[in-house]
Amino acid sequence: AQSVTQPDIHITVSEGASLELRCNYSYGATPYLFWYVQSPGQGLQLLLKYFSGDTLVQGIKGFEAEFKRSQSSFNLRKPSVHWSDAAEYFCAVEIMDSNYQLIWGAGTKLIIKP
Amino acid sequence: NAGVTQTPKFQVLKTGQSMTLQCAQDMNHNSMYWYRQDPGMGLRLIYYSASEGTTDKGEVPNGYNVSRLNKREFSLRLESAAPSQTSVYFCASSDPGRRLFFGSGTQLSVL
């Protein structure tokens, strides 16, 4: 069965430090991949997506993610985090031919130390 | 530009009561979704509607019904609420680029 794993429930990073959030998926083919961010009390917002082509994709708010087929991973990175990046981050995989149905990871909560 | 609007924001029900969560989008999207979010479990799809007039079950449809009233509106109904339905509910719509747009959520407690 398809699944998405985000191994880290919480991550604490100092402001200005670099960030990497991990995402691994289990799927038979190369899926469509997404990262969403949820600020407290809000709905989710798309950060970036990968469909095909260049495996390094750029998103909003200075985030990027790299698709590695050999590792079935799609890790999210940011070179220097800001306090406003404190939020929960969700990785998702689209099931092909499913009217855009997504399988979601459980999320990683990012805490920023001043 | 409102995007996706959900009502109500908060609701407390007693076991066995019914209620309808309302959702409307003003982006002319064909596809709309209802998710529930529980701690440590990410989002789980309850029902979705690929276009006006069609609805399909998602991962966790039991205990819920939906209505796609028109292209803008997609409602979720709990006929007989149970404590297991305590959750945060999100409505979303998607554009042709597969980008989901979410409402701000409904926090539902069933006592």
Descriptive account of the structure:
The complex is a heterodimer of chains A (114) and B (111). Chain A is an all-beta fold and 114 residues long. Helices cover 0% and strands 52% of the residues of chain A. Chain A has strands spanning 3-5, 10-14, 19-21, 24-26, 32-38, 44-50, 56-58, 64-68, 73-78, 87-94, 102-104, 108-113. In chain A, strands 2, 5, 6, 10, 11 and 12 form a six-stranded mixed beta sheet that branches. In chain A, strands 3-9-8-7 form a four-stranded antiparallel beta sheet, with no helix packed on it. A two-stranded antiparallel sheet of chain A has the order 1-4. Chain A is globular, with a radius of gyration of 14 Å. Chain B has no helices and eleven strands. In chain B, strands 2, 4, 5, 6, 9, 10 and 11 form a seven-stranded mixed beta sheet that branches. Chain B has a four-stranded antiparallel beta sheet with strand order 1-3-8-7, with no helix packed on it.
Unreliable residue stretches of chain B:
none
Q: How much beta of chain B, percentage-wise?
A: over 45%
Overall form of chain A: globular
Task: Tell me which protein chains meet in the greatest interface and how many residues each side has.
Answer: A-B, 24 and 22 residues
The tally of strands of chain A reads 12
Please, what is the oligomeric state?
Answer: heterodimer
Uncertain residue segments of chain A: none
Please write the string of helix (H) and strand (E) elements of chain B: EEEEEEEEEEE
Structural class based on helices, strands and sheet pairing of chain B:
mainly beta
Roughly how many Å apart are the termini of chain A? Answer: 41 Å
What structural category arises from helix and sheet content of chain A?
mainly beta
Number of helices of chain A: 0
